[in-house]
Amino acid sequence: MFSPQSIRNRFLIQLIFASASLMIIFSSLLYLYIERSIYDEKVQELLRYADNIVNNKSILENSSIQDTFGLEIDIITLHNMQQEYEVYQNTHKFKTYLTLIYPYNQKKMLYLKITQDITKTKLLLDKILHYIFIINIAGFGLVLLYAVILSKMLVTPIETLTRKLSNMNEHLMKEIKLDELPTEFRPLGETINHLLGRIQNFVKYQKELFIGTAHELKTPLAVIKLKNQVTLIKKRSCEEYIDAIQTTNKTVDEMNIIVSNILNMGRQEGAQLDKPQQIDVIEFLKNKANDFKLLAEKEQKELYMEFQPDSFMAILQTGLLNQIIQNFLQNALKFTPKGKKVKLVSFPDEYGLCIQVIDEGCGVDESVDLFAPFQRSGNKSGVGLGLFLAKSAADALGAKISIKNRNDGIDGTVATLQLKSDLSCTLPSKKSRIKKS
Question: What global pTM score does this model have?
Answer without folding.
Answer: 0.48
